[in-house]
Amino acid sequence: MTKGVSVARVVVIEDDPDISLLVAHKLRAGGHDVEVESDGRAGLAAVVASTPDLVILDWMMPRMNGIEVCEAMRTDPTLASIPVLMLTAKALEVDLERAYAVGVDEYIQKPFSTRELMVRVTRLLHA
Amino acid sequence: MSPVEWIFTAVTLALTLYYLTHHVIFASVIIGATVHVAREQRWEDENTQALTFSNPLAPGVSVIVPAHNEEAGILQSVQSLLEARYPSLEIVVVDDGSTDNTAQRLIDAFDLEERYVPTVEESVEQVGRTIETYRSSRHPGLVLLRKESVGRRSDAVNAAFRLCSKPLVCMIDGDSILEPDALLRVAQPFVDDPMVVAAGGVVLPSNGSTVERGRVVDVKAPSTMLERTQVLEYMRAFLVGRAGWSAANGLMIISGAFGVFRRDVMAEVGGLDEASLAEDADLVVATHRLLQERHQDYRVVFVAEPVCWSETPSTLAVISRQRRRWSHGLGELLGKFRDMIGRPRYGRLGVLTMPYFWLYELWGPVIELIGFAAAIVGIAFGWIAPWVFVVFVAVSFLLSIAVSLAALLVEVVAFGRYRRLADMAGLALAAVLEPFWFRPLHLWWRVRGLIASLRGEKASWGVMTRRGFSETP
Amino acid sequence: MPDLSTAGAESLAAWLLLGSAVLVVVLVVAVLVIRVLRWVADAADQRRSTWAREVLFRVLEGDDVRAPWRRARRHALAATAARLSTKLRGADRATLATWLTQEGFRQHAVEMMHSQVALTRARGARMFVACLADRETRPLLDLLGDRDVRVRSAAARALGECGIDTAVPFLVRAAQSDEAPLPVSVAAMSIVHAAPRSARSLGLAWQSDRPEVAAMAAEVAGFLHLTDARVPLEHAVAHDDPAVADAAAWSLARLGDPRSATPIEKRLRKHDLPVLTQRSLHGAYAELHHVRLEP
């Protein structure tokens, strides 16, 4: 499933270890370099430090929520072009609107399928 | 024996009986609470499951945040609500005639604009005139109501209640911080059982803990003995007291700092009693009365898991006013509903909880003083040996320490929120020291409150100087 | 005053004093010891759960892994799988369920569902769903009539989680039961999760003599956009109970068929509704005409 994708650096920001570790596991199996952070502020710091190729972001997190992390990234010129995939349990139409409004590139709802996640990751890394 | 000695003997026996029954009742409350909390806690996994599941159709909640000069804590408090895990939420903040920047801070932080908000519930009275209502374009559920103060929290809550449109209404304080899933947890009983009309959660002092962006990220015990003692008091009141009374289905108080009510029932009761000082307990007792008189099956429940963090006073001057007011309010409340006390038709509340509160909470300090005076008289006249008095005091101190420690034990066994050993040791030490310094002070404040209620004094919003939450840079 | 300086009174006093002092010391020690024990237990839980996650991730990769027979590890594996399963869907979930069934967890879940202890039955229901890769929901349907309301709710949630819409009529029947009712709101959420595609599966609920069940059907139909629910909803708007009328009106607004405005208007003309419901119906009516009622 990772054919044609070179090694990418991905930061996963998610406070549920079941999900963050599973996503990290899948990405590593796909040959990517993964860094996991469990709160928004630490996540943003990691993004600033390593300017990764992709950020996978939860919405509801301590210290700083996913929307704010994304907003902060979009206002920083060095980070503005990093694709963001939001993985969240928020399911209402207004949530989707809000997420895309702050510059999220992909939106996946929990519960999720890892196969779908990998397809979208690949697409974002290619874009 | 002389008549005086007769009277003395009778008083001493009555007092001994009083203490004995108090300890028996309290021991059974502790056991009831432990069983209740333990049983609930075993279902914890299932509950978490239920919470995530309940998302799409959970009944909407309107949260009322009355604020009077709360500029220090209001932003964190509203932030914690905006970040709460709840699918359908409306937040009504009331700026009750603040003289500080409470309203302006909210307007700036959340982009509020003047907008008309319709009154939904006409049946509840509002005394202070509404000045203006605001809405936010960024946060659709957030409403700010500015009104003239009449000096009472209850009027602020009622004014907000008139605007609430969701089936459940939650009341918190202007400086409270809700845990992210606290609302889901406290609303769960309403989902599971249609008979539930009111539910209360746990309030714990936030003093000492680290708060970031409306979330308590590190739970710590506060550093001063006064604040630590209050942590113990809250644990006793909630984890032992309320859990125990709730297990007996005789819950009388749901804290105004964190309680949820069904809106239709609250409207029927007429909202909060504007004149009452203990408006939160007043509402619960009024609800009990309404539903008992109508012979309707209902439940008032306490949920031991969700926590609302609230700042408690850090100086003696403020806490003395607060405690005086609480005692005053309790006296007022029991006076207002005295026809319910001891009446079987009002269920456990009437025959158990209210008499208990009347005898042990309200009149307790006076009886304690009488006991003390009697002992001095007895020793002076040689009617009792001094060692008897010493043993009596020592046992009563030790037992009250044991109650605090039992509450601490419930906390550590069931929840373990305070993770550091030093915090636990500090709280245990505070428990041991409490009877020697805090209890006499508390006794004095309560006596003054009782006197105020007997004289029928009027009182108003307590003045509380807040320091705001300690935010790490 | 009775004479207290007797040997009996003195020794009683000494015992009381000693007893309460010992109680205090024991409690202090207990508080501190339990704090430490909790650290140890939490750390052990954490380790086992990390281990269980790794095993399950390998299962998801399609590796050939065997579950161990040691009790504590098996327990951790079951708990982690039940948790993980709710966060996944599609092929991942099916892979996990098939593996759990192969390793005997499904059999164990069924045994748990027959336990004497309510909590074990509820946990069994949750475990069972994690193991479910087919449509064999019989054991869960049986639990809908359980004597403990929390177990009934757990079973309903489990059914909702499988997303099998044939369970919907059973959920409706459980909500209407007299002797062992399923809380209506739990039924509603489970039905929403099961996501039936037709209003027909709500069948019994529309005619229910309990208004909260009828209101639930109305709400669910709107939430799920069941277009074939329009006719029963239009009937429900005329229901005597305001809650049913309210829910039905809003669901009609969600379905958005302009024909539905007439029954709402008719109901409003009767002027028998409480103010709040009246206003809500006005809102639904306006919504159907694409106007926002902002006074």
Commentary on this structure:
The complex is a heterotrimer of chains A (127), B (473) and C (295). Chain A has helices at residues 17-29, 40-50, 66-75, 93-101, 114-126, and strands at 9-13, 33-37, 54-57, 84-88, 106-109. Chain A has five helices and five strands. In chain A, α2 (40-50) packs parallel to α3. In chain B, the strands form two sheets. Chain B has a ten-stranded mixed beta sheet with strand order 3-4-5-2-1-6-11-8-12-7, sandwiched between helices. In chain B, α7 crosses α13. Chain B starts with a helix and ends in a 19-residue tail after the last helix. With 473 residues, chain B is of the alpha/beta class. Chain C is extended. Chains in contact: A-B, A-C, B-C. At the B-C interface, α1, α2, α6, α13 and α14 of B face α1, α5, α7, α9 and α11 of C.
CATH architecture of the largest domain in chain C: Alpha Horseshoe
What is the average of the pLDDT values of chain A? 89
From the spread of the alpha carbons, the general shape of chain A counts as globular
User: How large is the radius of gyration of chain A?
Assistant: 13 Å
Write down the domain tally of chain C.
Answer: 2
Kindly state the percentage of residues in helix of chain C: over 70%
- Helix-strand sequence of chain C: HHHHHHHHHHHHHHH
pLDDT average of chain C, as an integer? 88
Biggest interface in this structure?
B-C, 53 and 51 residues
What is Rg of chain C? 28 Å
Poorly predicted parts of chain A: none
Oligomer: heterotrimer
Strand line-up across the major sheet of chain A? 2-1-3-4-5
Instruction: Give the topology string of chain A: H per helix, E per strand.
Output: EHEHEHEHEH
CATH class of the largest domain in chain C: Mainly Alpha
